[in-house]
């Protein structure tokens, strides 16, 4: 049991170190995937489009760097900026969403990439604290399992 807990502890430790070391690559991959999701937005009405809409509504953002990122997409040429970027759903008309100068007044102008990464970084202290607590419990479990094993071994020889 102590060996199993030690193995799990080492796996978690390695995952934490790898996540910390490669955090910049994770950001770069997220940014490129967000750009791909914008490019392919609503072509097939898939989960990626729903995820973009959810991010934009929840974080009150629009596009990757800013709202003008939508201008480069096929969706913009057909329908303009998506409704999920609107500050107030009642004030957004399709005509206004096709014109960037008018859209600037009715949509969120901040990009989602910075908001998502800053939200993730702000929550990292909570994740690190929980992980540290779990690691402490695992170490206590390893020590107690070794003590129990030692106690069982010592008592077995005394009983004879």
TrEMBL record:
Residues 1-19 form the signal peptide. Gene3D superfamilies: Tetraspanin (1.10.1450.10). The chain crosses the membrane at residues 127-152. Keywords: Glycoprotein, Membrane, Signal, Transmembrane, Transmembrane helix. Pfam families: Tetraspanin. It is a multi-pass membrane protein. It comes from the Eukaryota. It is found in: Membrane. The keyword Membrane applies. GO terms for cellular component: plasma membrane. InterPro entries: Tetraspanin/Peripherin, Tetraspanin_EC2_sf, TSN6/7_LEL. This is Tetraspanin-7.
């Amino acid at each position: 049991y102590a060996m199993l807990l030690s193995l799990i502890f080492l796996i978690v430790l390695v995952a934490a170190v790898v996540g910390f070391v490669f955090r910049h690559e994770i950001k770069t991959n997220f940014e490129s995937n967000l750009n791909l999701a914008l490019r392919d937005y609503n072509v097939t009405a898939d989960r990626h489009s729903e995820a973009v809409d959810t991010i934009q509504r929840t974080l009150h953002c629009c596009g990757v760097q800013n709202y003008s990122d939508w201008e480069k997409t096929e969706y913009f040429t057909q329908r303009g900026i998506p409704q999920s970027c609107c500050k107030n759903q009642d004030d957004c008309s399709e005509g206004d969403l096709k014109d960037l100068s008018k859209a600037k007044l009715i949509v969120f102008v901040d990009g989602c990439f910075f908001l998502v990464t800053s939200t993730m970084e702000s929550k990292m202290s909570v994740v690190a604290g929980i992980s540290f607590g779990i690691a402490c419990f695992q170490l206590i479990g390893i020590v107690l399992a070794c003590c129990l094993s030692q106690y069982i071994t010592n008592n077995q020889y005394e009983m004879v």
